[in-house]
Amino acid sequence: MNEFKVTIDGRECVAHEGQTILDVARSSNIDIPTLCFLKDINEVGACRMCLVEVEGVKPLQTSCVTKVAPNMVIYTSTPRVLKARKSTLQLLLSNHNKKCLTCIRNTNCELQDLAKKFGIEDIPYEGEMTPAIYDDSSYCITRDTSKCILCGRCISICSKVQTVGAITRVGRGFKTYVGVAENYPIAKSTCVGCGQCIVNCPVGALKEKDYISEVEEALNNPDLHVVVQTAPAVRSALGEEFGAKYGTLVTGKMVTALRQLGFAKVFDTDVAADLTIMEEGTEFISRLQENKNLPMITSCSSGWITFAEKFYPDLLKHLSSAKSPMEMMGTMVKTYYAEKEKIDAKKIYSVAIMPCSAKKAEVIRGELLVDGVQMVDAVLTTRELARLLKAHNIDLMNLADDNFDTPFGEATGAGHLFGTTGGVMEAAIRTVADTLTGKELEKIDYSELRGVNGIREASVDVGERKVKIAIANGLANVRYLMEKIANGECDYDFIEVMTCPGGCIMGGGQPITTSMDKYKYNIKALRASALYEADKEAKVRKSYKNKEIQKLYKEFLKTPNEGKAHELLHTKYNKQDIY
Q1: What whole-number distance in Å separates Cα of residue 36 and Cα of residue 499?
Q2: What was the pLDDT predicted at 453?
Q3: Residue 111 main-chain phi, psi, to 5 deg
Q4: Preceding omega of 407 cis (within 30 degrees of 0)
């Protein structure tokens, strides 16, 4: 690309052909406010907050879509620009529910931040407001259009990144709102509950369905034995809610905090990830040897399961029948653990802390019940856990480290990797390779499976055979692979799918970061590095060598993917109808 100079606020800045004014400003550490902008996803100039003045051009320019030119002179804070931005904010706020103190995004709202920055003290345009719609029909997501600023970020994420298209602009003019076509509730739409709309919304128009009060009620019930499990991605992001840097691992502090909340046992979902590898890995070996229903596709990600059932019901045979680690843990808690500790399973209240909003819908699926009993009673996201800890005055970062409880407390390094894209596949190959070759291979790190690109391909030597692998994260990339399978153009043996871009570390239940932080930091890589570090430091790094898992099979499950193990740890999938 051609390189040239532009001047921004009197500073000479290096620019390249094709860049926007906003690109150049941010790369030069010059702040231009935005609301609707998401790099490469929602670059539409809709909110008008990024207006700048360009010398020689009469109208103010939207910096997020205006390309730079050699010797361009730009001003980001002239009186004219500041007046325009302030008027824009006042207009947005005039149609906005301003109950900030009771909003889920209070102190973490991009609109609120800008109102403070520009000194908005009064709204001269008060009057009629667009009729509000409150939709809590989903088990995962709640919508409140009274807080929506029509920035379009949620729509672009849903349509471009996830290709789900559950929401769109409805109506015209003043009556425009973001909703579901034909005024359907979100639960009846194509929504898969992934929550990417939530983490990309700049305000509080979208949030996860909150189950904190139900969990607190259980914790305060002396007749219940309340246990909790925590997913791998949670420990790599929870600290951010308490001021820690991106990628700070807070595993031990998290365990201590959960004990202080009153949980009787704190279990590690990473152990169930090891269990998943035993079941899923055995299933894959069987399919590989029989050359049946290949490629096999992982089934850990609940948003992906819903996506497959809604969009690709004819390809459900390709999904592994193994339950997710969360469900496997929930099932073992109410069967094996209950039996071992002589606790009535009906007295156990099982909570899961997940990076994912879609998990809230997973737990009520009829196919996952055992003898009609729900195995996980409630799911809290990483954000909900942070709110719960703060409400109980628990300062996470000043706690001592503690260890998870047995019999589900000692995970392998492979189990830790489930939180990041490529991690499930790497964990699986470590066990599958040793099983197929009949010997323990020296290779543990499969760097060819790592990274954060949307689609990655690799061929892994497993004995005398090459296993062809694909890894996809973000449903647009998943759709691409599913179309290849549908068209008979796919020669993969094994595919890992994660619903969210980057995997669970960037799940819809993780801490919400501003669009500026998304620009400044490689958050995916930082959170992923924490899990790779946990894997590297683990004493045991292959799932089949986990002694707790070995004991579980010896005492209870017997043989992977057979008998009791198959009955309790596997499931089936069904077509879901959509409007």
Answers
A1: 23
A2: 87
A3: -70, -45
A4: yes
Please state the pTM of the whole predicted model: 0.95
Number of helices and strands in the chain (H, E)? 20, 18
Task: Give the CB-side neighbour count of residue 168, counting CA atoms within 13 A.
Answer: 16
The CATH code that applies to domain 93-208 is: 3.30.70.20
- In the chain, which residues fall in CATH 3.30.70.20? 93-208
- Helical ranges in 129-211 per DSSP H: 153-156, 196-200
571 is written with which tokens?
A: 């499931």
Report the C-alpha gap between 503 and 233 in whole angstroms: 9
Residue 195 one-letter amino acid: G
What is the maximum span of the chain, computed from C-alpha positions, in angstroms?
Answer: 80
Question: Which one is the CATH code of 213-569: 3.30.420.40, 3.40.50.300, 3.40.50.1780, 3.40.50.700?
Answer: 3.40.50.1780
Q: Is 248 helix (H, G, I), strand (E, B) or coil?
A: coil
Backbone angles phi, psi at 318, to 5 degrees: -80, -15
Query: Which of the residues are catalytic?
Result: 280, 283, 300, 320, 359, 362, 367, 504
The count of C-alpha atoms lying within 13 angstroms of the C-alpha of 409, restricted to the half-sphere facing its C-beta, is 12
Task: Tell me which architecture the domain covering 3-77 has in CATH.
Answer: Roll (3.10)
**CATH 3.10.20.740 domain span(s) along the chain:** 3-77
Structure tokens at 336: 């094996």
Q: What is the mean pLDDT of each run of 10 residues along the chain (579 residues)?
A: 92 96 95 94 93 97 97 97 96 94 96 95 87 94 96 96 95 89 90 97 96 98 98 98 96 98 98 98 95 96 97 97 98 98 97 98 96 96 98 97 97 96 95 89 85 90 86 97 95 96 97 85 94 95 96 97 97 90
- Indicate if the alpha-carbon torsion angle 365, 368, 369, 375 is positive or negative: negative
Cα distances (angstroms) measured from residue 539 to each of 412, 416, 527, 536, 546? 7, 12, 21, 8, 10
Closest CA to 509 of 363, 387, 404, 426: 387
Q: What is the DSSP letter of 47?
A: S
